[in-house]
């Protein structure tokens, strides 16, 4: 697992901007709401980070418990919380024991792939199983694994503007054999430069189905976009809903 606390403040601010820009939380909230109305519901957001998804889930009417191992990320989340119903807990999401059960559990923006091995993913699915109400649902918001293998997995970069005075270049490399991908984020201003990285290990839908079964869950729905498009070989997203069998 990559160290989730490696981001310094500069990187964190950039991560928050990139995260909001590439995958605004409103998309996730729309997808979740289409399966499970959020108003008045209790949501556990695992790997909440700086809160891009957490805030959107709370804005849709949910009461959210946000868990992350990175204190600086949670500090930024808290600074944006306002009067929304959000509780923040610093913890490792593979080993969480809360006395509460939740209507909805979310792992947004590839957080599921940050549990690096199959065993870690099964532990994480076990955490979901323990904390889900009988009729509850969990939402894994993943990039489709095929996306990582464009250009055969060789390094590919994309640069985005970050506000008016900076830009971020994100370079991905993927390794098919270990199903892992490394993303390096390079944030450049006129006289500043900072970098951070993230390592993830992807799982195919077939592997997720199997691991979910082992953890006492099942895949109840898969779509290819937040808007509910069918999941096909052309999908760039793999949006998985889990429930109890
Ligand atoms: C890809 S980010 C997603 C952040 C947020 N959900 C979003 O939509 O912007 C993954 C988050 O998982 C956190 N994380 C990674 N490993 C973790 C662990 N073992 N326990 C808790 N949080 C972890 C990282 O600190 C990071 O904030």
From TrEMBL:
Enzyme Commission identifier(s): 2.1.-.-
Signal peptide: none
Protein origin, superkingdom: Bacteria
Keywords noted in UniProt: Methyltransferase, Transferase
Organismal lineage: Bacteria, Bacillati, Actinomycetota, Actinomycetes, Kitasatosporales
Molecular function GO terms recorded: methyltransferase activity
Example of a GO biological process term: methylation
Enzyme class: transferase
Acetylation among keywords: no
Domain Methyltransferase, chain residue ranges per copy: 43-136
Listed name of the protein: Class I SAM-dependent methyltransferase
InterPro entries: Methyltransf_25 (IPR041698), SAM-dependent_MTases_sf (IPR029063)
């Amino acid at each position: 697992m990559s160290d989730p606390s490696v981001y310094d403040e500069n990187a964190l601010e950039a991560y928050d901007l990139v995260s909001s820009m590439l995958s605004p939380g409103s998309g996730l909230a729309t997808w979740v709401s289409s399966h499970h109305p959020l108003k008045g519901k209790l949501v556990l957001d695992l790997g909440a980070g700086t809160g891009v998804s957490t805030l959107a889930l709370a804005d849709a009417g949910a009461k959210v418990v946000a868990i992350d191992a990175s204190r600086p990320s949670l500090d930024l989340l808290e600074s944006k919380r306002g009067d929304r119903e959000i509780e923040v807990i610093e913890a490792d999401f593979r080993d969480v024991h809360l006395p509460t059960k939740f209507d909805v559990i979310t792992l947004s923006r590839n957080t599921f792939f940050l549990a690096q091995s199959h065993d870690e993913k099964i532990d994480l699915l076990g955490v979901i199983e323990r904390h889900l109400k009988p009729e509850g649902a969990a939402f894994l918001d993943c990039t489709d694994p095929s996306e990582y293998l464009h250009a055969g997995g060789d390094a590919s970069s994309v640069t985005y503007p970050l506000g008016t005075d900076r830009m971020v270049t994100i370079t991905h490399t993927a390794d098919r054999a270990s199903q892992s991908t490394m993303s390096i984020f390079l944030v450049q201003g006129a006289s500043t430069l900072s970098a951070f990285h993230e390592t993830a290990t992807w799982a195919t839908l077939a592997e997720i189905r199997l691991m979910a079964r082992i953890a006492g869950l099942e895949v109840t729905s898969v779509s290819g976009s937040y808007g509910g498009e069918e999941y096909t070989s052309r999908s760039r997203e793999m949006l998985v809903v889990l429930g109890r069998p």
